[in-house]
Amino acid sequence: MRVSYKWLKEYIDLDIPVDELAEKIERSSVEVDSVIKPSEGLKKIVVGQILNLEDHPDSDHLHICQVDVGDDEPVQIVCGAPNVEKGKKVIVALSGARIADNIKIKKSKMRGIQSNGMLCALDEIGYPKDVVPKEWADGIYFLPEDAKVGNDVYKYIGMDDELIDLDVTPNRGDMLSMYGTIHDLSAIYNKPAKFDNVKVQKTSGKKTADQISSDVDSQIALTYKNRIVNNVEIKPSPLWLQICLWNAGIKPINNIIDITNYLMLKFGQPMHAYDLDKLHGNNISVRNAKKGEKITTLAEDEVDLDENDIVVADDRPIALAGVIGGIDTSITNDTKNVLFECAVFDPIKVRKMARKHVIHTEASQRFERGINRGGLDEVMENACQMSNELANGEVCDDTLNGSEFNAQPVVVNITLTKINHVLGTNLSSEQVKDIFERLGFDTKVDGDAFVVTVPTRRWDIHIDADLIEEVARIYGYDNLPSTLPTTTMTTGKLQPKQQLIRNSRSILEGLGLTHAISYALTSQDKAKMFMMQKSFETNLSYPMTNDHETLRMNLVTGLLDDIAYNKARNVHDVALYEQGRVFYKENENEVRPSEIEHISGAITGSLLRSTWNEKAKEVDFYQIKGIVDKYLETIGFINQVEYVANADYPEMHPGRTADIMIHGHYVGFIGEVHPNIAKKFKINTTYVFDLNLQLLNDLPKTDQSYESISKYPSISRDIAILIDENVTNNDILKVINKRGGAFLRDVNLFDVYNGEHVPSGKKSMAYNLIFQNKRDTLVDDDVNKAMDKIQRNLEKEFEIEVR
């Protein structure tokens, strides 16, 4: 919210630089985005009066104006505005002037005629186009008659003001008003504030209740009030009111609408005005919308409604309650009778509706954060009295209460001991009481105890901790003593899970993969792909897009999207990994899903580029398996990993996919993405893996320890066997490692053959075995015994034939 410094000073005596005031607000109340000085950067922009004008001889829209700017002689300015008029006082940018966007005005010729300046519209000197009143949107602006020719123009259009742009937090909705800001500054600077006490001075004798009735759902509107003003004259607002609005970023419309916006800025209470004669019937209701109903808003957007929306209605919706009015009952130049609305709408319902329809307004912002539930009568009195003064309206005697909540001040108990203990201060009872009274809180003191009555305008205060915060900020955070906490000092270090995550990243990057980060939100279809366990999806209630509506249940689809992104830009060799969380729900009604750490990888193309002596090789199953093997071995799973073929993954190639098992536990999968899925993602052949990092952290691992290199020689032996085709390499390795004895150090498969001279249903496999004794020289007899034992057990288990 933009706070006018000049408007502030009407209520409280402040005589400090605006930058200092903004810093004080930021230190004590809410954040300040910026301090805006509308005239900053502008120069040589003055009040001028058009003495004479004539049409340009070579143009059908340009005019040659003689303008008095307070000099001895008028200046000649060529102007193309359609509303230029003799005798009017206007904004003149002289030659050498600086206007908006630091544009410099120079003398020039326009179609052969000398022009020595520029007649300006409001947006040309810095006001945003969307706050310029409609009557001045397509032409130059006419200044008031009392503007003195030759003077700087800034004070006549509010540009001599200074604006503090507040970034109001959700808990301080009271600061979305001038009165709320004034109350805070009054307490901070310990200065009295002068507030208005406006009452309707004259009523018409007519009754609101005779002209309208209301039917209000109190679950939607705790308080709902209406009052009618008859026979209004719709016209532009006075200049002071327009300046107040456009400096706050609100476009002036007409006197009635401007009154509602002005009071919203003043009190923080949104209002709405309806054209009474445009209502269907004489009853107004506040209810849930009906399915299929529609409304065209003041922004001329048609909105489809459902049962979760809340509306103000006659026999059709005429406003989205707390958000925006409808165009069918809007105030126009023909309006004669006005129905004012002042209400307290349910903040949660307003927020959900505004977010669902993406309609965020000044009104919805205030209802969402909360308003003063005890201040509606004062706001209604102000609106009606201003309607009488500015629109000659006849105010009805009564206010129609469709619903009314009796807002009561909150009473909070606290002790001086607790305040000083929490803040580390040594404040006296008199100091604390003074702070509460400066805030406008009625305070009773009984020894160490305070009984504090908090007015309804501060609806954010409920408990003693809130009062402690108020004492701290008014006393001054800078005045609080600085002390070091008394605690037991411990050595900081990473937890095992954190260390595993960090090591995993380092290992995979060392193996040639690049770290990628994907969105945790994805589409429903992608969320349910590549799943390692059954789960219900977790959907957002109000997603921003269909591509980000469901929490992911795998990391692989995010990596495939990244590969597709690179392929579309002619990057064909991509190796990525991602470490992050996936979200599982065991049952559909579970509110909060379980968050499980995973680590995944995806490789397409080649890991190595072609060189002069070796061509690049496309990645295959064994290459990505080697990466996973090395990763698992490095984190502590040595000779514990097993790969089991699995053709049940619908998104994976049925013949090139395997489950990854450790100690019999399923920890992930590895393989080629199914060609149909690759085609869907518009990528080439891609291999992926996905591991449950949470489970890897929990499983027992082999501690890595130092081993000296043996100084004794090793012995190498080969064995080639003929075996059934259905026996796997893993089955054979289990037997060799189990029966190889204490000196067996390594086993490698170096040949597989099932061609000519090999019987049908058989295959030939050749292994190289390395034996070594770390403490003594190994002799052939020991190796021969180990080889014989291995051969016997292979023959026993698989009926092999040694070749």
Overall description:
This protein has 803 residues and is α+β, with helices and mostly antiparallel strands. It folds into 6 domains: 2-38 and 162-189, 2-Layer Sandwich (Phenylalanyl-tRNA Synthetase, Chain B, domain 1); 43-156, OB fold (Dihydrolipoamide Acetyltransferase, E2P) (Beta Barrel), CATH 2.40.50; 208-403, Phenylalanyl-tRNA Synthetase, Chain B, domain 3; 410-479, 2-Layer Sandwich (Phenylalanyl-tRNA Synthetase, Chain B, domain 1), CATH 3.30.56; 496-698, Bira Bifunctional Protein, Domain 2 (BirA Bifunctional Protein, domain 2, 2-Layer Sandwich); 715-802, 2-Layer Sandwich (Alpha-Beta Plaits). It is built from 20 helices and 39 strands. The strands form 10 sheets. A 7-stranded mixed sheet has the order 27-30-31-35-34-33-32, sandwiched between helices. Strands 3, 4, 5, 6, 7 and 10 form a 6-stranded antiparallel sheet that branches. Strand 8 (108-110) and strand 9 form a beta hairpin. The chain is elongated, with a radius of gyration of 40 Å. It starts with a strand and ends with a strand.
Topology, please?
Elements: E1 2-4, H1 5-8, H2 18-28, E2 31-36, E3 43-55, E4 63-68, E5 75-79, E6 89-99, E7 103-104, E8 108-110, E9 113-115, E10 117-120, E11 163-167, H3 178-189, H4 208-211, E12 213-216, E13 221-230, H5 239-247, H6 255-267, E14 271-275, E15 283-288, E16 294-296, E17 302-304, E18 310-313, E19 317-320, E20 324-325, E21 338-345, H7 347-356, H8 362-369, H9 376-391, E22 394-395, E23 400-403, E24 410-415, H10 416-423, H11 429-438, E25 442-446, E26 449-454, H12 464-475, H13 496-510, E27 514-515, E28 521-522, H14 524-527, E29 550-551, H15 556-567, E30 574-584, E31 594-604, H16 621-634, E32 641-645, E33 652-662, E34 665-673, H17 675-681, E35 686-692, H18 693-698, E36 715-724, H19 729-739, E37 744-753, E38 762-771, H20 780-798, E39 801-802
Parallel strand pairs: 12-15, 27-30
Antiparallel strand pairs: 1-11, 2-11, 3-4, 3-6, 4-5, 6-7, 6-10, 8-9, 13-21, 13-22, 13-23, 14-21, 15-18, 16-17, 18-19, 19-20, 24-26, 25-26, 28-29, 30-31, 31-35, 32-33, 33-34, 34-35, 36-38, 36-39, 37-38
Helix pairs in contact: 5-6, 6-9, 7-8, 19-20
